[in-house]
């Protein structure tokens, strides 16, 4: 079977680090007060921008300034390496599909690969810059898709044959949708399949 995992906030706890840097950026560069509104039903990745009332330019500037530092600093979530190793031992294929954007000189790809190695996360193939994940899911013939983004999950559910699991996070936990299977920890997939 083929498993496709999202990276940020699925394999790693990225939100915590992004929020930390977003508050800093809000105060230092936007003269804001760094206070985040509570958002617990965000359907996409830009919850922090929503929480700080940023516009698109603010987001762009923030990522330009801090993105590389953030993705180097994120911590792996519990049981990730173990769970993927168990799947691999049963001859499953592991794909990591992330929307992390391509920048010059493959720097995102290099940092991401280094981070995966450091955290002993096995994978067969890594795809970055995946904007519409359902397309890759179809192309690769993925059987199981695991992501924290409700938008990605619902698209994959509707447009592919893959079975979908949404990882619960601080920012999507209020979303109720009976169509989507929500799991708290990644090792749950071993029990669900
Ligand atoms: Mg994610």
Summarize the structure.
This protein is an alpha/beta fold and 193 residues long.
Can you give a write-up of this model?
There is one protein chain. With 193 residues, the protein is of the alpha/beta class. It has 2 domains: 2-13 and 75-192, Rossmann fold, CATH 3.40.50; 14-73. Helices cover 44% and strands 15% of the residues. A 6-stranded parallel β-sheet has the order 5-4-1-6-7-8. Strands 2-3 form a two-stranded antiparallel ribbon. α5 links the parallel β4 and β5 (125-127). α6 (133-140) crosses α7. The chain starts with a strand and ends with a helix. The site of magnesium ion (MG) has 7 residues, from loops.
Instruction: Give the CATH H-level superfamily of the largest domain.
Output: HAD superfamily/HAD-like
From the alpha carbons, calculate the radius of gyration and give it in angstroms.
17 Å
How far apart the termini lie comes to: 11 Å
Ligand types: magnesium ion
Helix count from the secondary structure assignment: 8
Which structural category do the helix and sheet elements fall into? alpha/beta
Q: What does the main sheet amount to?
A: 6 strands, parallel
CATH topology assignment of the largest domain: Rossmann fold
Beta-strand proportion = 5-15%
How many domains, as an integer?
Answer: 2
- In what order do the strands lie side by side in the largest sheet? 5-4-1-6-7-8
Query: Shape from CA axes?
Result: globular
Amount of helix: 40-55%
CATH class category label of the largest domain: Alpha Beta
By DSSP, the count of extended strands is 8
Average of per-residue pLDDT values: 94
Order of helices and strands: EEHHHEHEHEHEHEEH
**Judging by the overall fold, what is the CATH architecture of the largest domain?**
3-Layer(aba) Sandwich
């Amino acid at each position: 079977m083929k498993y496709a995992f999202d990276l940020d906030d699925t394999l790693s706890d990225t939100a915590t680090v992004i929020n930390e840097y977003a508050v800093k950026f809000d105060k230092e560069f936007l003269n804001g007060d760094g206070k985040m509104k509570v958002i617990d039903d965000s359907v996409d990745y830009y919850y922090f921008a929503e929480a700080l009332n940023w516009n698109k330019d603010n987001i762009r500037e923030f990522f330009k300034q801090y993105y590389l530092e953030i993705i180097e600093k994120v911590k792996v979530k519990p049981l990730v390496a173990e769970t993927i190793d168990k799947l691999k031992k049963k001859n499953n294929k592991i794909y990591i599909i992330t929307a992390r954007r391509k920048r010059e000189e493959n720097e995102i790809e290099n940092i991401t690969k280094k981070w995966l190695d450091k955290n002993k996360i096995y994978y067969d193939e890594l795809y970055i810059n995946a904007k519409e994940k359902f397309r890759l899911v179809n192309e690769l013939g993925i059987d199981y898709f695991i992501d924290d983004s409700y938008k990605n999950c619902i698209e994959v559910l509707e447009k592919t044959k893959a079975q979908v699991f949404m990882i619960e996070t601080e920012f999507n936990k209020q979303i109720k949708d009976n169509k989507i299977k929500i799991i708290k920890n990644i090792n749950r997939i071993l029990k669900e399949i």
